[in-house]
Specification:
This protein is mainly α and 136 residues long. The chain has one domain: Orthogonal Bundle (Globin-like), CATH 1.10.490. Helix content is 66%, strand content 0%. It is built from six helices and no strands. The mean pLDDT is 90.
Length: 136
């Protein structure tokens, strides 16, 4: 017997669109996204594929997020924390508590991984201004 799916594709689509609506309106995150996303329809579709792969196992996402994120200039631990806060707020849209918790756990791990990768890249590039804080 297979385990029931924790969320639907429509819930994932709502999660992604709600989160990016919040992020784009955020005074800290909005300018970063606007400066680096040229085609919002394509970006949102890619993020739906990402979260569908992560939460539903659809394997639709093809990409390498780490190189894209570590190349961004002037990120901070506070911005990563803000991203995570907004994502957690958007994940509240899931009716199923297990789906909500799973999405929030994954987002925490993703944010932590991207932050550590960003810090390492900044050190390699000789930009030591990035604080030595390792945990979100």
């Amino acid at each position: 017997m297979t385990a029931p799916l924790m969320c639907t594709e429509e819930e994932i689509r709502r999660l992604v669109h709600d989160f990016y609506g919040r992020a784009r309106a955020d005074p800290g995150l909005g300018p970063i996204f606007e400066a680096h996303v040229d085609d919002w329809d394509a970006h949102l579709a890619k993020m739906v594929d990402f979260w569908s792969s992560a939460l539903r196992g659809t394997a639709r996402y093809r990409g390498m997020p780490m190189p894209v994120h570590v190349a961004l200039p002037d990120l901070s631990l506070e911005l990563f924390r803000r991203w995570l806060t907004l994502f957690h707020e958007s994940a509240e849209l899931f009716a199923n508590p297990s789906a909500r918790e799973r999405a929030q756990e994954l987002a925490q791990r993703i944010a932590q991984s991207l932050w550590l990768g960003y810090r390492r890249n900044q050190e390699v590039m000789g930009r030591s201004q990035v604080p030595d804080e390792r945990h979100l």
